[in-house]
């Protein structure tokens, strides 16, 4: 049976091993890592999945912001990585983690979510799309159709801008 817990319940070394197994040891140079540089994951939205006490999956969320060309700054949450142990992929663990995170986000923890991922999967099951992200720049390479957002709430996001680590979150860690 899979149980979910706050990510703090998982040992950092076990999380790193899981991420290496799921994404490779060269993952640190990816654009998503640049987006979360200097910030810490958001505890209310970051979870670990355990089976019989063993870590089998994680989801991590990070504070980012969209800096518009007109000077406005919109806070957002970067979703990912969503990692599942390779031998347990396709067992619904990633979907379980996403659903739990989205429930927490919808309960008031975040209205604007962004991720880099498979558009067919994340749009079909979770409502993410690339419809609004075409004018957003990121600090590194990205396949445009894979930059996805899920937006809720009354405030529209700028059509053009740059995604970056959330400045106040990064400053608080210094």
Helix content: 25-40%
What gyration radius follows from the Cα positions, in whole Å? 16 Å
Q: Give the oligomeric state.
A: single chain
State the name of the first-level CATH class: Alpha Beta
Question: CATH architecture, please?
Answer: 3-Layer(aba) Sandwich
Classify the beta-strand content into a percent band. Answer: 25-35%
Please, how many domains? 1
Q: Given the structure, what is the number of helices?
A: 5
Biggest sheet layout = 8 strands, mixed
Q: Could you state the order of secondary-structure elements as H and E?
A: EHHEEEHEHEEEH
Unreliable stretches: none
CATH superfamily annotation: Gcn5-related N-acetyltransferase (GNAT)
How far apart are the termini? 40 Å
Question: What is the typical, i.e. mean, pLDDT?
Answer: 92
Helical/strand content category: alpha+beta
DSSP, total strands: 8
In the CATH scheme, what's the topology name?
Aminopeptidase
Name the overall outline: globular
Notes on the structure:
There is one protein chain. The chain has one domain: Aminopeptidase (3-Layer(aba) Sandwich). The chain has five helices and eight strands, in the order E-H-H-E-E-E-H-E-H-E-E-E-H. The chain has helices at 12-23, 31-35, 93-109, 119-126, 167-172; strands at 2-6, 47-51, 54-68, 73-84, 112-116, 136-137, 147-151, 161-165. Strands 1, 2, 3, 4, 5, 6, 7 and 8 form an eight-stranded mixed β-sheet that branches. Strand 4, helix 3 (93-109) and strand 5 (112-116) form a beta-alpha-beta unit. The longest helix has 17 residues, at 93-109. The termini are far apart. The mean pLDDT is 92. This is GNAT family N-acetyltransferase.
């Amino acid at each position: 049976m899979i149980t979910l817990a706050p990510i703090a319940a998982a040992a950092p070394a076990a999380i790193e091993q899981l991420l290496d197994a799921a994404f490779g040891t060269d993952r640190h140079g990816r654009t998503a890592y640049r987006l979360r540089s200097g910030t810490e994951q958001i505890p209310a939205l970051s979870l670990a999945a355990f089976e019989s006490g063993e870590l089998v999956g994680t989801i991590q969320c990070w504070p980012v912001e969209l800096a518009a060309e007109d000077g406005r700054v919109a806070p957002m949450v970067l979703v990912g990585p969503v990692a599942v142990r390779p031998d347990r992929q396709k067992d619904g663990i990633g979907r379980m983690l996403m659903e739990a995170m989205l429930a927490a986000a919808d309960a008031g923890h975040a209205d604007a979510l962004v991720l880099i991922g498979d558009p067919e999967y994340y749009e079909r099951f979770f409502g993410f799309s690339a419809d609004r992200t075409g004018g957003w720049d990121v600090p590194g390479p990205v396949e445009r159709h894979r930059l996805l957002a899920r937006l809720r709430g009354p405030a529209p996001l700028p059509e053009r801008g740059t995604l970056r680590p959330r400045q106040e979150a990064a400053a608080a860690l210094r």
